[in-house]
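In this supplementary section we document a worked example of the pipeline. Step one takes a protein sequence of length 281 as its only input; no multiple sequence alignment statistics are reported here. Step two produces a three-dimensional model, which step three serialises into structure tokens for compact storage. The input and output of this example are shown verbatim.
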Amino acid sequence: MIFNIFFSVVGLSRMESLFKDEKDLPAMTWLQKFCCRILKAGAIPRHIAIIMDGNRRYARKHKYDNRLGHLKGFDKLAETLSWCSELGINEVTIYAFSIENFKRSKDEVDNIMDLAREKFHRLQAEKEQIRKHGVCIRIIGDINLLPPDLQKLAADIVYFSRNNTRAILNVCLAYTSRNEITNAVKDVASGVESGLLYPSDSSEELLEKCLYTNHSKDPDLLIRTSGETRLSDFLLWQSSYTVLSFTEVLWPEFTIWHLFGAVLHYQRSYISVKVCTISIP
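The serialised model returned by step three reads:
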């Protein structure tokens, strides 16, 4: 249950130990456990990506301020990671903050940055436990756009967990796919200009190695909540053969049943997707 260590890390900011035994986590019902076993008899996505949409609408729906809506979203991520662990999903990529989100009000952006600081500080406090459980944390995006102190926190977390391989959490922060692809093209162009590469070396494979996600396989399943049916500049390159699952529920109201439904949708699409990927020359 590797991802379970994140249940407290990204959850509510209580001051007790961040790492809990399985017995301390909310127990799955017998029906949930039964459905989980049934799903695990089929193909399970090894890497899922999530667009966690709907925090602000959830806040308006319940007459909360936006900060509490985002905090509820962090809590839901923690819970979702524990469900992924139960299903045997060992890599998760989340769209935490888009470059476009910097256009929101200063107060909202500052609140989100403060939440990120809080969670990163708590991750730092549990370095040994993260190393013990073998979780690799990657911060993906144009990190230079973040406040300097947050850049340092992100770099520290990435560095101390870099050699862990049992589970991977990719956090897309200050990210858009167009920015990622643009920077990859610039890297290749710089290599040609400096003489490290010949123009003929330029290829799809080389460009792919210059993407932020070059250490990960493409996601098998991408989930977006809140009823929106677009990718919003998220993993556009990597999602060519990814199964897409869109659900009406707002992200803080996402349940294990929505995750089960997305995995079942993936299983129903599995054969056709495999045929497409195998047929690629």
